[in-house]
Amino acid sequence: MLSKRMEELEEVSKELLKVLLSDWADNLLRRSLDKRSQMDDKLLASQATAAQLVRELGAAEETVAKTLLDQESELQRLLQRLQDLEEELVRAREAGASLQASNSALRRELEELREESRRLEEDTEREEDTVPSTTYVTQLYYKISRIDWDYEAKPAQIKGIHYGPDIAQPIDIDGSRHSRCFISDYLWSLVPTAW
């Protein structure tokens, strides 16, 4: 039995060998090799494309990273500018509040000065109403003292005419030689005591 099987196996092997050696097997093998070659070419092309895509992706990542860094730098600059502007706004508000307080104080002071000016004007008007005019005072002094003063005399010279009860008497006193007390006493001695 074993020998029969061996014979059968040997026959199958021969047939197989014939098939393999036949033209059909050769065509099949060539087609397989062509397909393998095409697959290798496609694999190499795919690897080249993948390598190109990896390079492009790396370049794109680098560009995006650079753009991102630039934008982050710009964002930091803008944030710093915003902070500076906020600080400047706070300072401006403080200065504005200070100016407003100063303005309010100046307005109060202005109102006080206006009120003071108004009161002074009212006081001046009252004084003008109550204080006699210079002419009136001069006439009153003349009626009391009966002295007509010489206003063109030198500053140290006291000159005038005293119209006493009996006669007119000239006055000519050098103020630099006599004390004020003497001059005052002398002039009062000329005023009559009997009314």
From TrEMBL:
UniProt cross-references to CDD domains, sorted A to Z? RWD_Spc24
Q: Which InterPro entries match?
A: Ndc80_Spc24
Which UniProt keywords are present, listed alphabetically? Cell cycle, Cell division, Centromere, Chromosome, Coiled coil, Kinetochore, Mitosis, Nucleus
Q: Which GO terms describe its biological process?
A: cell division; chromosome segregation
Q: What is its main location?
A: nucleus
Q: Where in the cell is it found?
A: Nucleus; Chromosome, Centromere, Kinetochore
Q: Which residues form a coiled coil?
A: 65-130
Can the keyword Ligase be found in this entry's annotation?
no
Which GO cellular component does the record give, naming just one? Ndc80 complex
Q: Which GO terms describe its molecular function?
A: microtubule binding
Listed under subunit, the entry gives:
Component of the NDC80 complex.
According to its UniProt entry, the function of this protein is described as: Acts as a component of the essential kinetochore-associated NDC80 complex, which is required for chromosome segregation and spindle checkpoint activity. Required for kinetochore integrity and the organization of stable microtubule binding sites in the outer plate of the kinetochore. The NDC80 complex synergistically enhances the affinity of the SKA1 complex for microtubules and may allow the NDC80 complex to track depolymerizing microtubules.
In which family does this protein belong, per the annotation? Answer: Belongs to the SPC24 family.
* The name this protein goes by in its record: Kinetochore protein Spc24
Q: Which organism is it from?
A: Accipiter nisus
